[in-house]
Amino acid sequence: MTLAHAIGYIFAALAVVGIAYQLIALAAVWRFFAGSAPRGTGSEPVTLLKPLHGAEPRLVDNLASFLEQDYAGTVQMVCGVGDTSDGALAPVASVRNRYPQTDIAISTGPRWPAVNAKIGNILAMMPLARHDVLVLSDSDMAVQRDYLAKLLGALEKPGIGAVTCLYIGRGDAGFWSRISAAAMSCTGLPNMVMALATSIAQPCLGSTIAIRRETLAAIGGFERFADVLADDYAIGEAVAELGLKVAVPPMVLTHACAHRSFAELWHQHLRWAATIRGVAPMRHAGSGVTHALAFSVLASLFLPATFAWLIGAALAVRLGMALTVNRIAGVRNRFILAMPLADMLEFAVFIASLFARKIDWRGSRLRIMGHGRIADRNPSASEN
């Protein structure tokens, strides 16, 4: 057997494992979303925390979706920026004008000194937060009208310390944003469902972290995560340390992708992958076997006559995943055409993340330290 044959067989074996994983993940996604998230019966006042950075596409509509809720309780929104020149202030003013009866507070900085600028922004916002139930979410998220009712329904259950939500992508800025949306929808979502199904992880996600003040205080407040890159993941771990659970109701939010170029997409996805590697290196390394399509292509390159069929098999199971995610999200054909390129890109990001020691965070260069911590603070670092 030649070296090329040996390499081809190795890639083929990895492709078969990847295809098997995708089939199991497909079944897990179906099971996870088979039920419905119960709506809460209470009407506790809620403060929405929205750390912002720049005028993102459709920011007004994204923020408005959090206020257009079928929820009986009082809702306050606290928006935070680093300084008065931030481009997000104009969209926030538009939201204020659209909802004049809603309590919308604005923190214009300065940020609390923190390596993680998002946490620094949140800490500056906290004095404006009026209510005991806090719902933190990234600026690029959009939600349905039953979001708060279902979120509070999960949070009020015994033993629950925090609630987080899964999400799919939506391309808002052209070709590369649609590729990013396909990657997070057809790869990110099923991988997270698998992690939950196997109890590998109990993280919070930046899409949503609903938590009570007393629980936040018990884990050390947001100050504890001032130099942590994966602050959302670390908050989930800290909640688990208290003996409480992080609930993930079977509903899906929308992440508004705004990547206008390949470089923007690459830097953000590499940061996400390097973040996962920083907090769970062995799990991240093991996730390499999930890349069924990439390994199928590599196997067929070395032994095309023997393993070309693997590409068809991988594409078929990944098409099944794309169709399933479309059905769950209530959209048609959003990810199907973009999915193959997104898969190959995610494989390249995975390989690069194994060697990355520094990441770009909207113009800032951060050095990844041990246990998911970061150094080399730059005051212009972003919030999302």
Secondary structure topology:
Blueprint: H1 3-32, E1 46-51, H2 59-67, E2 75-80, H3 89-98, E3 103-107, H4 117-125, E4 133-136, E5 141-142, H5 147-155, E6 160-163, E7 166-171, H6 175-197, E8 209-212, H7 213-218, H8 231-241, E9 245-247, E10 252-257, H9 262-279, H10 281-286, H11 292-302, H12 304-329, H13 339-353, E11 358-361, E12 364-368, E13 374-375
Parallel strand pairs: 1-2, 1-4, 2-3, 6-9, 7-10
Antiparallel strand pairs: 4-8, 5-10, 6-8, 11-12, 12-13
What is the CATH architecture assignment of the domain at 46-279 and 356-375? Alpha-Beta Complex
SS content category: alpha/beta
Overall CATH class of the domain at 46-279 and 356-375: Alpha Beta
Q: What's the mean pLDDT score?
A: 89
Number of helices: 13
Shape, principal axes of CA atoms? globular
The neighbouring-strand order within the major sheet is 3-2-1-4-8-6-9
Proportion of residues in helical segments: 40-55%
Gyration radius (Cα, Å) is 21 Å
In whole angstroms, how far apart are the ends? Answer: 50 Å
CATH domain fold name of the domain at 46-279 and 356-375: Spore Coat Polysaccharide Biosynthesis Protein SpsA, Chain A
Strand tally is: 13
Low-confidence stretches: 377-384
Question: How much strand?
Answer: 5-15%
What's the story with the biggest beta sheet? Answer: 7 strands, mixed
At the fourth level of CATH, the homologous superfamily of the domain at 46-279 and 356-375 is Spore Coat Polysaccharide Biosynthesis Protein SpsA, Chain A
Task: Note the run of SSEs as H and E.
Answer: HEHEHEHEEHEEHEHHEEHHHHHEEE
